[in-house]
Amino acid sequence: MDISRETVVVVLAVAALAPLLADFPSRVRVPIVVTEILAGIIVGPQVLDLAQPDAVLDTLSDFGLAFLFFMAGMEIEPETVRGRTAKLAGAGWLVSLILGMAFAAALYAGDVIGAPVLVGLALTTTALGALVPILRDADLTEHPFGRVVLATGAAGEFCPIVALSIVLAVASGEPWRTVLLIVFAVIVVGAGLLTTRARPARVVRLIEATMHSSGQLALRLALLLLGGLVAIAGSLGLDVVLGAFAAGFIIGLITRTPSARDFRVKLDAVGYGFLIPIFFITTGLGFDLDSLIDDPGSMLLVPFFALLFLLARGLPAYLLARAELPRRERTALGFMAASALPLVVAITEIATADGTLAEDDAAALVGAAMLSLLLFPLVGTALVRR
């Protein structure tokens, strides 16, 4: 059997076992995404060596990352991106940006890390895509707390993506490329208007007729929009997850009616049943565990970076939500907001590729993000359930 096929089979087996492992009787319910990452590390080349990242798996993982942000975008309601809650979420991210850059600058001055701008940006991220299934499994998406988490997470996911695109444009010596963000915004608005207002009778009829047949026109059109906006974002030199997030937001706008429930279930099946688990498991496969074990200093950086996530991202969210949530839920919000991973992985890959961030420091930062996603949502959901 080809190595790629063996790896894919192992990853699919891990994906199938992950829900069973996450549901194992325990006083502490581990989020399934954390189970997938840890299982990926265990079956990966640095522990059991049953599977290795390869071209096939990397491609599927890229699709999984895009779908993760697509599903996160679908959860954002129009009320979430406007009004008082949205303003507080945006203000909280700006405070996080100041704190994150200050912490990173101090570490850079102390010769602890490189790439201070990218590391500072990583400290401002929130793993909204990973939090959405956690909130849904805990029945918190419709809770006032869940809506504030979604708004805070949207700011912690969307704003760093935009900031990263600007940083990369400036670093490339072509700051004019930031104008492409405006071009992309115009394209997204145009695509949104087209999909929400243009309803040709034949297309509507075919969507309804093929919803439960092999045609699946609605699903195919959604995937076309996802692929199109991802491709456009990439061709403009922007982060492709920006296109995926925008596509999910547009699809979310037109599928908020009860009649679209079956369609959203199908998207859940494609995303959470296939592509998204592959992304998280592949993240575990590629995690550089050896560099942490071999360097005690890097190992110590893992809890230190996790603490910085709490201070840079969680503390501003806690302080600015004073009028929105009671104290216990604000504390839970702070932990949720400090949960990071997908963007941290992307940012560290960029920093290590250009040689500004050492591999062991990148592993420590990703390890801290994984630790944050393991512990912080557990604490947050426990506080809310009380």
Describe this entry's structure for a reader.
With 386 residues, the protein is mainly α. Helix content is 75%, strand content 0%. It has one domain (3-138, 151-385): Na+/H+ antiporter like fold, CATH 1.20.1530.20. It contains 17 helices and no strands. Helix 3 packs across helix 12. The longest helix is centred in the middle third of the chain and has 28 residues, at 144-171. It is globular, with a radius of gyration of 20 Å. The protein starts with a helix and ends with a helix.
Draw up the topology in text.
Blueprint: H1 3-22, H2 32-43, H3 55-74, H4 84-109, H5 116-122, H6 128-137, H7 144-171, H8 179-197, H9 201-209, H10 217-235, H11 240-254, H12 261-285, H13 289-294, H14 296-320, H15 327-337, H16 342-353, H17 359-385
Helix pairs in contact: 1-2, 1-12, 2-12, 3-6, 3-11, 3-12, 4-5, 4-7, 4-14, 5-7, 5-16, 6-7, 7-15, 8-11, 10-11, 14-15, 14-17, 15-17, 16-17
Q: What's the gist of this structure?
A:
The chain is mainly α and 386 residues long. The protein has helices at 3-22, 32-43, 55-74, 84-109, 116-122, 128-137, 144-171, 179-197, 201-209, 217-235, 240-254, 261-285, 289-294, 296-320, 327-337, 342-353, 359-385. The radius of gyration is 20 Å and the shape is globular.
How many domains would you count in the coordinates? Answer: 1
Range of strand content:
under 5%
Count of individual beta strands? 0
CATH-assigned fold name: Na+/H+ antiporter like fold
Shape: globular
* Helix content, binned percent: over 70%
CATH C-level class = Mainly Alpha
Query: What CATH architecture would you give?
Result: Up-down Bundle
Mean pLDDT: 85
Largest sheet: none
SSE order, as H and E? Answer: HHHHHHHHHHHHHHHHH
- Indicate the structural class: mainly alpha
